[in-house]
Hints:
Blueprint: E1 6-10, H1 25-31, E2 38-40, E3 51-58, E4 64-70, E5 83-87, H2 88-101, H3 106-114
Antiparallel strand pairs: 1-5, 2-5, 3-4
Amino acid sequence: xxxxxxxIIVETDGIEQTDVPLSSxxxxxxxxxxxxxxxxxxxxxxxxxxxxxxxxxxxxxxxxSNVNIYRWVENQEVAGLCVYMVSQQFTQKIFSYIAKHGAxxxxxxxxxxxxxxxxxxxxDKPYLNCY
Length: 131
């Protein structure tokens, strides 16, 4: 609503489950791929595909955190999405899709269907660009 290019969503149980310190969120936003619709920030043990980028994020006390961004293109059959970033194009794409086709359980539907499988709208690529 505010016109921000990204929004980070943290569910109530997400703070303890994030893969990176909260102080790294700004760096992750700065390193987000231009085509990113969704960036998953709490399922690091499930890499989901090839490594795209690695960088070091420094916390407020100078502590270093290694951050890896993977393309999410492999079915992981997981749920538990509780910390993730979405882009403006995500809301446009997902609302359009839901209006035509409906939705399902958010975690599995986003992670294992919309981020992995092609749709009639996306041709031979996944509907969403997920990392």
